[in-house]
Write a structure and sequence with these properties.
Length: 65
């Protein structure tokens, strides 16, 4: 991203991550989706905010291309 957006300032904080994220591996995610296990229920407000965030990420990705 730095190469594609040299005018932007990026802040990297490698120490700030969630340790539980290390437990998520592609094989487990694949199995979960394939077998439709571990359903998570979210409030409508959380879903709306997450959707907005994903839309913004996609828009940014289109600009960077």
């Amino acid at each position: 991203m730095i190469e594609k957006c040299p005018d932007k300032k990026f802040v990297f904080m490698p120490f700030m991550h969630y340790f539980s994220m290390k437990k998520i591996i592609l094989e487990n995610l694949y199995q979960c989706l394939e077998k439709e296990r571990y359903e998570i229920e979210l409030d409508e407000e959380v879903i709306k905010n997450a959707y907005k965030s994903l839309e913004n990420m996609h828009k940014f990705g289109e600009k960077v291309k």
